[in-house]
Amino acid sequence: MTNLDIARLRADTPACEKLIHFNNAGSSLMPTPVYQAVLDHLALEQTIGGYDAEDKAEPALEDFYDAFAALLNCHRSEIAYVENATRAWDMAFYSLPLKEGDRILTVEAEYVSNFLAFLHQARRRGLEIDVAPCDSSGQVDLDAMERLIGPKTRLIAITHIPTQGGLVNPAEEIGKIARRHGITYLLDACQSVGQMPLDVQKIGCDLLSGTGRKFLRGPRGTGFLYVSKKIIDRLDPPFIDLHAATWTDARTFKLSPDARRFENWESYVAGRVGLRAAVRYALELGLEPIRARVTLLADRLRTDLAELPGVTVQDLGRVRSGIVTFTKDGEQPRDIQARLRAANIGVSVSSKSSAQLDFGRRGLSQVVRASVHYFNTEEETGTFCKVLGSRA
Ligand SMILES: Cc1ncc(COP(=O)(O)O)c(C=O)c1O
C-alpha cells in the first residue's frame, strides 16, 4: 500500500469528478496548484507586462533548477529548460561531436522522433545505427547490446519507457555498460519522469530529457534537459542565442559554461513557473510512493483486462510502468477510443508509424494505450473494464 492521500489528490484534480483520465502518458491533468501557478503568472503578465512579471517570478524561476536538481539528484547548473522533450533530446543529440562512420547503439522501442533524428544524421553525416534486440521478456537484451559495441560506438541512446508499451528498460544496467566502455549515454526519460524515482548518478547517464505535461503533470509546451557537467565542454549546441552564449568581442563568443547553453532567451515563462510547481508537487508526494501507487493500479488494470474475452494485454518487459496497452478482437483501437470517449474515459492509440521496429517485429499495427496515474482509483479501473467489455 502507499501513503498518498488519494482523496486530497483527487480534490486537487477537479476533472476526476467527471472524467476517467487514463491518458497520463499523453498529457496528464494539472493539479490545481500547478494550474494556479500558470494562471497567476499570466495574470501578472497581463497586469504589469511580461518583462516585469518575469522579474517578479525570479524566485520561482530560480527554484526551477533546484527543484529539478532534487528530482534527478544532480546540480542545478546541469539543468536546462527546453520547450518539450523532443527539442531537449535534439539539443543533446545534435550537439555531440559525431562524425562519419561513428556508431549509435539504440533499442527497438526507441522513440519515433529520436529514431528519425538517427536516420536524418545517418543520411547527412554518415553515422551508423545499431539496434540491440530484445530478450524473451521484451526488454533490451543486455548481453546482446554489449556485444554490439565496437571501436566506433560513440553513443548509447535509449528510451527508458517507450511511448507504445508498458515495459521499463533497465536504464541502470545500460548505464553500467556505457561506463565500462566509456561511451556517452543519452536517456529519453519522457515517460518515466514523474512516475518513478530517477537518479542520474545511479543510472549513470550523461544526458537525460523529459517533458512537463505527462507524468510530471506540468503544463503543455514545457520540457527539460539534464547535462552532466563531466561532458558539457564536449557539447556544441546546434544553435545558440544571446542567452546560450555571450558575444565577447566583435568576432568572438563564449558558450555558457553550463546547461544554459541549451536554453533560449525567449521562453514560456508561465510554463516554467508551472513546471517548477509540478516538480515541487511531485517531490512533496515522493516519487517512491508515486511509483508504488502507479504500479498497483497498472497491475490491477492488466489483470482485469486479461480476464475480458477477446482482450490481449500487449505489454512486454520484466518491469512494467503505468502504461497499459491492449488489443481487442473484432474492435479497432480507434473505435475503442471513440467508444470510451463517449463514456468520458480518456485513452490514446499507439500506431506502427510511431514504432516501426517494435510493432513490426510483433506484428502489431495499433494498440489502445491506457495510462494510469496515482490519482486514478481501482474503482476507475473497474469501470474501465466494464465499459470496455460491454460490447462483445
Ligand atoms: C518516450 C517519449 N519520448 C519523447 C516524447 C516527446 O515528447 P514531447 O512531445 O514533449 O516532445 C514522447 C512523447 O510522447 C515520448 O513518449
Characterise the protein shown here.
The model has no long low-confidence stretch (mean pLDDT 97). By secondary structure, the protein is an alpha/beta fold. It folds into 2 domains: 6-30 and 286-389, Aspartate Aminotransferase, domain 1, CATH 3.90.1150; 33-284, Aspartate Aminotransferase, domain 2 (3-Layer(aba) Sandwich), CATH 3.40.640.10. The strands form 4 sheets. Strands 2-8-7-6-5-3-4 form a 7-stranded mixed β-sheet, sandwiched between helices. The chain is 40% helix and 17% strand. The chain is globular, with a radius of gyration of 21 Å. It contains 14 helices and 15 strands. Strand 3 (103-107), helix 6 and strand 4 form a beta-alpha-beta unit. It binds pyridoxal-5'-phosphate. Pyridoxal-5'-phosphate (PLP) binds next to helix 5.
List keywords for this structure.
single chain; 392 residues; alpha/beta; Aspartate Aminotransferase, domain 1; Aspartate Aminotransferase, domain 2; 2 domains; seven-stranded mixed sheet; four-stranded antiparallel sheet; 14 helices; 15 strands; binds pyridoxal-5'-phosphate
In short:
By secondary structure, this protein is α/β, with parallel strands linked by helices.
The count of helical stretches stands at 14
Highest CATH level, the class of the largest domain: Alpha Beta
Oligomer: single chain
CATH superfamily placement of the largest domain = Type I PLP-dependent aspartate aminotransferase-like (Major domain)
